[in-house]
Design a protein that fits this description.
Layout lengths: L16 H13 L7 H11 L4 E5 L5 H9 L5 E6 L2 H10 L6 E5 L11 E6 L14 H4 E12 L8 E2 L2 E2 L1 H7 L4 E9 L2 E8 L10
Parallel strand pairs: 1-2, 1-4, 2-3, 4-5
Antiparallel strand pairs: 5-9, 6-7, 8-9
């Protein structure tokens, strides 16, 4: 979720219908930290290659709506939201979408339906704020894709955040079982996109 993300949708006419519905509900609820359009377009494209999609941090469902709009028929989507009110609003967005499940609970509830072809960690599991990061080997099929969004583009190496090395970003960029790249989506917005390797590399010395 991005600060002022909901406000980044000035014109709803050109949006997929589900995304438009989610943005409208987010606006009515005063929920400002929705997925930005730049990130949404990335999720729309990635969803087309997945049969099972997971997400943490549903919010009011804007990011999930981008995923559902890009998914092929028969794809299942599961998203976990820890805030009960937000989960209820997101469920309203997808009331007529039986392939989409919104779960109210801690982000670890995402393990129930693993493994995934595509997993978006937006509301837990990234390893931010000192929390343990998710284990992609438990959550992703080999060849599956992981997305960590809402990052400031790196301008130094190693990448830095608040004046020190960005340990969260380095965890995923250096992960021995993942091939990870940073994508700049806007001058002020980036995402990490990682693929779980089919053949695991030996553990690196830490």
């Amino acid at each position: 979720m991005s600060l002022e993300g909901t406000a980044a949708y000035p014109d709803l006419a050109q949006l997929p219908p589900l995304v438009r519905r989610a943005v409208e509900i987010a606006r009515r609820a005063g929920f400002g930290t929705s997925c930005r359009p730049e990130q949404g377009r990335l999720l729309l494209a990635l969803a087309a290659g997945a049969e099972m999609i997971g997400e943490t941090g549903t919010g009011c469902g804007v990011g999930l709506a981008w995923l559902a709009s890009g998914a092929r028929p028969g794809t299942r989507l599961v998203s976990v939201e820890r805030d009960a009110d937000s989960a209820a609003l997101a469920a309203e967005v997808f009331f007529d979408q039986p392939q989409v499940s919104v779960v109210h609970g801690d982000w670890r509830e995402i393990h129930r339906d693993a493994p995934y072809d595509l997993l978006v960690l937006d509301g837990g599991g990234q390893g931010k704020h000192g929390e343990p990061p998710a284990d992609p080997h438990r959550l992703l099929r080999p060849g599956g894709t992981l997305v960590i969004d809402d990052l400031t583009p790196a301008r130094h190496w190693p990448p830095r955040f608040d004046g020190s090395v960005d340990r969260t970003r380095m965890h995923w960029l250096d992960h021995p079982g993942m091939d990870t790249a940073e994508l700049r989506l806007a001058p002020d917005l980036a995402a990490l996109v990682a693929t779980r390797r089919f053949a695991e590399a030996p553990d690196r010395e830490r």
